[in-house]
């Protein structure tokens, strides 16, 4: 048994949203609710709709229809629902809610803007009217390549209100990545901005948009927000300033399109190391219900709360923040810039300034802030925080404990795991149950998850593949324009079960832990090792700021463990010390073949380390799509460190072909 990191009080349990749901159905515990939600998924999702007061303009007649097969399940059949009705219009029409904050936006410059629900509806309607005048119709794809500013949310909702398809694009993408997404969806209109803030500098965006649109003949209009006051080229007949575009439509009232529950709301793209990006298709009914239930029952958000997840609208946590907060009548905080600029107090200062009640982060972000010291969070009043959220990668115990401690010690960490294609998460703890350190708790409600071995048998106490055995409303309705790729990616490994590509383990108490992506997992002489296990051991050393662990081809063992470590000011002697530390923590068979000291690791804007790119640099392969990387130049530093021999441990031959490396 392991000591729990969180034990809820009876008062905490009684006040929680999920307790209200349980009481309404005579359910005594969260474990009982989990079991019933999986035994009868139709009952659960219908109960969630009713408990949360989600409004269908035409009531659904059937909760779930699998007549076309489980991969093509349809939800809320016969029902009509527009996501914007539930996230904006119903609150704007409520006398008690219309004047409450819906959006709070802060930039690196220190400027703060906010919109009430009433103001948000007015801006959404004006933009929807402008889009209609520009020829945007139901079913058209609309790209939103914008910074984390209120207008990015206005554009999303205006698109959805018309029944057009919202396509969020990461604000840090290079032109080729933007173009590939616009091309794939045949986007008709693109929203962008002159630029964005990043570490005190102006980051131009319009030039990237221009280069991308030049390759996309389907794009007829480009609407440009004047965010930084930069002079940017405007192509006559195609480009129009945001203010000019909406000016004729101020005061317009636009009724939501009569969208079916299965009509597409969003195409959310994921990028990989090879192949074109995958467009996950999410629909009005399923995405709304799944996200609202998660944010209500897992992160316990309530009307009037302040929800802040440090992310970008181009990643799934951006749309989750928008839809989850607003479906429940809460405010969404948006932050434009780096979380440690101009100093490491920035994130904590924002929490205090806006009275944040739910703060969401990535483990990598917390590990980075931890190295800067306790004095930065200690300088700010974080007492409004009631829930902490995390996702993106596995935790290490030191970072987990530090986050809990600096935010007051009495706050649960709701550690989520899912993905873009999942429409949020498979796994989560709930604040009404004891939570083990670094644990993912158990199944999210209505999610029939399991751990399978290679033969498709459930396993306990050992590592296996994370699967889901029944459909759920937030499940992607395929990969946009590629039916076979969808089936091959998720449904071809196990009959009738979704294989997500994560290694997972369920312990003796039924608590879940993830050990990294299954295609990141290292196989050392037949022993499977999750990179997160090695990274956690490395993180226990006081000199280590962060690390990335990968497997490289080894003729004797199949794969060898290589560690790339950021340890400012350390000399080469640390590398051998870290090899011994890992051997001590995990066993001699897992002693790293090399530990390489580097200045930086490649990361996404949301601070997720790109292990596959690190591995590619290690074995001399093409790193593939780096459009999501904030600092792709870090790979040059890794290659230089390898060439200079800045490591401990023997060299491992990298002369094998790329194909043999991939097959090892």
Descriptive notes:
The protein is an alpha/beta fold and 664 residues long. Among the domains are: 81-97 and 117-302, ANL, N-terminal domain (Rossmann fold), CATH 3.40.50.12780; 520-663, 2-Layer Sandwich (GMP Synthetase, Chain A, domain 3), CATH 3.30.300.30. It contains 22 helices and 33 strands. The strands form ten sheets. It has a seven-stranded mixed beta sheet, sandwiched between helices. It has a five-stranded parallel beta sheet with strand order 7-6-8-11-12, with helices on both faces. Helix 14 (363-370) packs across helix 16. The longest helix is centred in the first third of the chain and has 17 residues, at 117-133. It is globular, with a radius of gyration of 24 Å. The protein starts with a strand and ends with a helix. Mean pLDDT is 91; it is low at 651-664.
Secondary structure elements and pairings:
Elements: E1 4-6, H1 10-15, H2 17-24, H3 30-39, H4 41-52, E2 62-65, E3 74-77, H5 83-92, E4 101-107, E5 112-116, H6 117-133, E6 141-144, H7 150-161, E7 165-168, H8 175-185, E8 189-193, E9 195-198, E10 201-204, H9 206-213, E11 221-225, E12 239-241, H10 242-246, E13 264-270, E14 278-283, H11 284-297, E15 306-309, H12 317-327, E16 331-336, H13 346-354, E17 358-361, H14 363-370, H15 375-378, E18 387-390, H16 397-406, E19 413-415, E20 417-419, E21 424-428, E22 435-436, E23 442-443, E24 449-452, E25 464-468, H17 483-490, E26 498-506, E27 512-517, E28 522-524, E29 527-529, H18 531-539, E30 546-554, E31 558-566, H19 573-586, E32 594-598, H20 611-619, H21 634-644, E33 647-648, H22 658-663
Helix pairs in contact: 3-4, 4-11, 5-6, 5-7, 5-12, 6-7, 8-9, 11-12, 14-16, 18-19, 20-21
